[in-house]
Design a protein that fits this description.
Blueprint (H helix, E strand, L loop, with lengths): L8 E3 L11 H15 L12 E3 L2 H7 L7 E2 H16 L22 H15 L5 H5 L8 E4 L6 H10 L7 E4 H4 L17 H8 L2 E4 L11 H12 L4 E3 L7 H21 L7 H17 L4 H25 L2 H22 L1 H16 L14 H13 L3 H14 L1 E2 L1 H8 L12 H21 L9 H19 L2 H32 L4 H4 L7 H27 L5 H15 L29
Parallel strand pairs: 1-2, 4-5, 4-6, 6-7
Antiparallel strand pairs: 3-5, 7-8
Helix pairs in contact: 3-6, 9-15, 9-16, 10-12, 10-13, 11-12, 11-20, 12-13, 13-18, 18-19, 18-20, 19-22, 20-22, 20-23, 22-23
């Protein structure tokens, strides 16, 4: 693309608009770049007049911590980059032979900067992309650290998918720094660099892994980790959207429907649902809670469909309207549970992938990080070593790679020798399980009068209170606490409670009783409900409220309990402790290029 300005662009000195750029101005950006490509500089809209900003003056007046963009800016930027690729304004180059039809990876950040960001911002007077859109600047909430070797779509999708819900603005070096101006003088003292000033103002730091190498093979990303650790900033890992979730969940729901059809046809084939139902319940329980894998998910879905079909048919024939509605609601929630649980493998696979991307080429030693400018590394390492924090920063990065995030709380727990691998991730099905067992189930039991009555009528209501309290705590807790809260809910709430209910109901069958008649009796669920309400519910809420750090600090039982909960959580999610270094000290050559370093602006 041509680097010349459109004839319609005019400099306005230090005068610039006082408001942020709107959708109309976004269209002007695209039109301006297209004008610069045409020999005559003609535009389809001759009435448009483009105003260029004085980039030098703008960046001198606006503090670096305000060189930020919004989430909506990133969404629009992704669209504009896609349009530029299709229009031929961003083309493959030597070292970046990207596929123009690839919407997942895209050209590298370096290529997009050279062929798109620089021409556009140059035409607007040389300001950064962020100040071009928001000349007065925006308060920094999130600091994004990344290595320039990743694909632009890979980067944007991860940042957009992991954007903190309370954040509005983010500092991202490729868009925040003026790519047409030289700020090398600002990098002479790393602690006074725009990166440092923006990170100090940010609430948290978001690390973007990539498929090329670990960001921590680059010295400036290491330095940003050092600053975040020094200032007690939470560090989170950006994760890509998990693909295939809807397809996998839809498949499970279809198999449940197929099971329902087979269940409806079973009596015609001479099968007695009354005799087979208890056996199928046992098989369903073991297939759902003790095994994993795609085929067993399908088996569970098929068994659930058969059982739901038999239950609905039985209630239609013998029970009232409330029983029929309860059977339909329970069947729907059971199908939803299986659909969510079947997607766990996809989530776990994404978690392992992000951790491996952060490990790739990282040796665990800050000294091994590289820089395109030797003097930068010398200054950064001397500053870290002068404060005697090299080991602490290495530990913080190790916690980030293992847990998916690095916060003061998680670093404190890791110091106790507890393996926190995967604690930064939690499964959506966990929330569903708590809602189903501690809220939906007791409501149904109250309506059908199957739980406690008389002096113990309060039992199901207190159980509902426990479920709602945990859901509120989970929603209000920080991201570094949710993985532990989920582990507590599953292993101290759901699993023992469900096991108790299972043993209570199957004991009647094993003793020769009629299971169907038993679970239809008034108050049959009171005994397990009393235990669940007085033991499992309070334990689940209390430990979740304490959080991982406070639980680990409990005398005698704290550390072993947290270690055990996290161990079972990892095993359930197929998250195993991986060695710190994978693939030795090798890393892709793309990380060694000067364009890969965020200090190149």
């Amino acid at each position: 693309p041509s680097s010349g300005l459109s004839p319609r662009a005019r400099a306005v000195g230090t005068s610039w608009p006082g408001t942020s750029m709107d959708g109309h101005a976004w269209r002007q950006v695209a039109q301006l770049l297209q004008c610069s490509d045409s020999p005559g500089g003609d535009s389809d809209n001759d009435d448009e007049e483009f105003i260029a900003l004085d980039g030098v003056a703008l960046h001198q007046q606006v503090h670096p911590s305000r060189w930020c963009v919004t989430r909506e800016d990133l969404v629009q930027f992704r669209f504009e980059v896609g349009e530029a690729i299709q229009d031929g304004r961003i083309v493959p180059v030597v070292g970046d032979e990207f596929d123009p039809n690839d919407d997942c990876m895209g050209p590298s950040i370096a290529t997009v900067t050279q062929q798109f960001i620089r021409p556009v911002t140059a035409a607007w007077g040389g300001a950064s992309w962020a100040l071009m859109l928001h000349p007065q600047g925006l308060e920094c909430h999130v600091f994004v650290t990344h290595c320039w070797s990743e694909g632009v779509f890979e980067f944007l999708d991860k940042v957009l998918n992991s954007w903190p819900r309370t954040a509005k603005h983010a500092y991202c070096c490729m868009l925040s720094n003026p790519q047409n101006l030289s700020i090398s003088s600002l990098l002479d003292q790393p602690e006074q660099s725009p990166f440092a000033k923006a990170l100090k103002a940010a609430r948290c730091m978001l690390v973007v892994p990539n498929s090329s190498c670990s960001v921590y093979t680059r010295i400036w990303c290491v330095y940003e980790a050092f600053l975040a650790y020094s200032w007690n900033k939470p560090i989170f890992t950006a994760s890509a959207p998990v693909r295939g979730v809807r397809r996998r969940a839809g498949l499970m729901l279809a198999i449940v429907v197929l099971g329902g059809v087979l269940g409806a046809l079973a009596p015609a084939a001479g099968l007695d649902p009354h005799r087979l139902a208890p056996l199928l319940v046992v098989l369903l329980y073991f297939s759902m809670y003790f095994f994993a894998g795609g085929r067993l998910h399908c088996t569970s879905a098929l068994l659930l469909g058969v059982l739901c079909s038999w239950w609905v048919a039985s209630t239609v024939a013998t029970k009232g309207v409330e029983w029929i509605l309860a059977a339909i609601i329970c069947s729907a929630f059971g199908a939803g549970l299986l659909a969510l649980r079947s997607t766990d493998e996809l989530w776990s696979r994404q978690v392992r992938l992000e951790a491996e991307q952060l490990r790739a080429g990282f040796t665990g030693k800050l000294q091994d990080a590289r820089s395109s400018v030797a003097r930068d590394k010398e200054q950064i390492m001397s500053q870290i070593q002068a404060l005697e924090q090299e080991a602490e920063v290495e530990h913080a990065i190790t916690v980030l790679i293992s847990a998916g995030m690095s916060t003061p709380s998680l670093r404190s727990v890791a110091q106790l020798g507890i393996d926190i691998s995967g604690v930064g991730w939690w499964r959506p099905v966990t929330v569903y399980l708590v809602l189903l067992l501690f809220v939906i189930r007791p409501i149904i039991l109250i309506v059908l009068d199957l739980s406690c009555s008389g002096v113990r009528v309060w039992v199901p209501w207190l159980q509902i209170a426990h479920g709602l309290a945990w859901l509120v705590l989970f929603r209000a807790s920080g991201p570094d606490q949710r993985g532990f809260a989920a582990a507590v809910a599953v292993w101290l709430g759901w699993v023992p409670y469900m096991l108790l209910i299972f043993l209570w109901t199957t004991s009647e069958w094993l003793l020769g009783g009629d299971l169907v008649t038993f679970i239809s009796c008034r108050g049959w669920s009171c005994a397990p409900d009393v235990v669940g309400t007085c033991v499992f519910g309070p334990l689940m809420v209390l430990l979740s409220a304490l959080g991982i750090e406070e639980c680990a600090a409990l005398p005698v039982v704290g550390t072993p309990l947290v270690r055990l909960l996290l161990h079972y959580m990892r095993r359930r999610q197929n998250l195993q402790t991986l060695p710190l270094q994978i693939g030795g000290g090798d890393s892709p050559s793309s990380c060694a290029s000067e364009e890969s370093d965020c200090s190149n602006v």
